[in-house]
Amino acid sequence: MTHVLVVGGAGYIGSHTCLDLSEKGFTPVVFDNFSRGHREFVRWGPAEEGDIRDAAALDAVFARYRPAAVVHFAALIEVGESVKDPLAFYENNVAGTVSLLQAMGRAGCERLVFSSTCATYGDPVAVPMDENHPQVPLNPYGHSKLMVERVLRDLSAHSSLRSVILRYFNAAGADDETRIGERHDPETHAIPLAIEAALGRRARFKVFGSDYDTPDGTCVRDYIHVMDLADAHSRAVGYLIEGGESTALNLGTGDGTSVRELLGAIEKRSGRPFPIEEEGRRPGDAPMLVADNAAARRVLGWMPRRDLSNIIDTAWAWHTSSNVGSPDQTSQEVA
Ligand SMILES: NC(=O)c1ccc[n+]([C@@H]2O[C@H](COP(=O)([O-])OP(=O)(O)OC[C@H]3O[C@@H](n4cnc5c(N)ncnc54)[C@H](O)[C@@H]3O)[C@@H](O)[C@H]2O)c1
Ligand SMILES: O=c1ccn([C@@H]2O[C@H](COP(=O)(O)OP(=O)(O)O[C@H]3O[C@H](CO)[C@H](O)[C@H](O)[C@H]3O)[C@@H](O)[C@H]2O)c(=O)[nH]1
């Protein structure tokens, strides 16, 4: 039985990765402090409650399961929160990851897959963006991820640790069977917010900026299905087990969708027009983020298999299922 330690595995992308790892014959062991994750999302292996800043808790889990690799999702992820409280992000995302890496060192575990983000690139100087695009983050969240990338590059050069850094573009969609799905609290992501507006759970959808230098004036993003992301993580684990070298890879589809196009697609799927309001720009938003995914295709033999309509179908199915729970209402209250 090959155990993979999935740190932050009770969260959105981590839980879908556990599903994919188990389908590929691994046993995912979730290590999570449940600060943002959900106990009912841990379904494909054991759950261990603990914090990555707690060395003793980490040592106990490494001793118990002797994982072949670690997949590390645990982080604070909300850009707005990072601007309000940068130190919380450096403590959790940077110091927490250093603590995890130290525990891996003590346990002799030398393979890590790390969740990074296109937010490390900042404002695009070329679209689509490949992995050599300059990395100039626009906020503390992006900086915290870039700092960990730096640490991992140093460890790859000067220790026996090997890592695959995965830079996701916009994760979206849900498990086909609606067992798990996207549940952030508070929710800030465009697709769940628009679906909740279509369902009448929020009063309206606010478009953050319609004066960008993009075809329709709204921001363009590369939405990638969470199960495509999950598949890439399982492949990255296999790649490291087979002796692959440290690398950093973009995970996106290569297709851009504007906020307006996204809202049109969600209205079409739901059959329910919903109120849309134009707001000012949200600080820290880049106008256009689209991936060049050639490296991930080449190195992992990966390719995205699902398109925007599958993303919206599975997200819609999740939000209309009984498993969705009760979404937080603080970011766009029902009037
Ligand atoms: N959602 C996206 O679109 C997106 C895009 C790019 C990158 N990412 C990255 O992917 C990762 C997962 O994102 P997500 O959307 O699944 O977030 P999420 O909040 O749903 O999951 C994060 C999980 O980590 C856990 N966690 C946080 N701090 C911890 C700590 N100190 N110790 C133990 N567990 C801790 C939380 O409880 C939660 O279960 C994050 O690292 C995020 O930065 C996400
Ligand atoms: O209520 C909303 C929410 C979002 N948007 C727009 O929709 C697009 C997508 O926004 P999301 O918040 O869904 O996603 P981001 O591109 O901001 O976020 C992505 O990049 C972030 C860093 O910038 C984090 O990594 C985050 O986890 C990841 O989903 C953006 O242009 C945003 O301005 C709106 O118009 N209204």
Present the secondary structure layout.
Blueprint: E1 2-7, H1 12-23, E2 26-32, E3 47-49, H2 55-65, E4 69-72, H3 79-84, H4 86-107, E5 111-117, H5 140-158, E6 162-168, E7 170-172, H6 190-198, E8 205-208, E9 220-221, E10 223-225, H7 226-241, E11 247-251, E12 257-258, H8 259-270, E13 276-279, E14 288-289, H9 294-300, H10 308-319
Parallel strand pairs: 1-2, 1-4, 2-3, 4-5, 5-6, 6-11, 7-10, 8-13, 9-14
Antiparallel strand pairs: 9-12
Helix pairs in contact: 1-7, 2-4, 4-5, 6-8, 6-10, 8-10
Short description:
Pfam families: Epimerase. With 335 residues, this protein is of the alpha/beta class.
Provide key terms for this protein:
binds galactose-uridine-5'-diphosphate; 10 helices; alpha/beta; 335 residues; three-stranded mixed beta sheet; UDP-glucose 4-epimerase; seven-stranded parallel beta sheet; UDP-glucose 4-epimerase activity; binds nicotinamide-adenine-dinucleotide
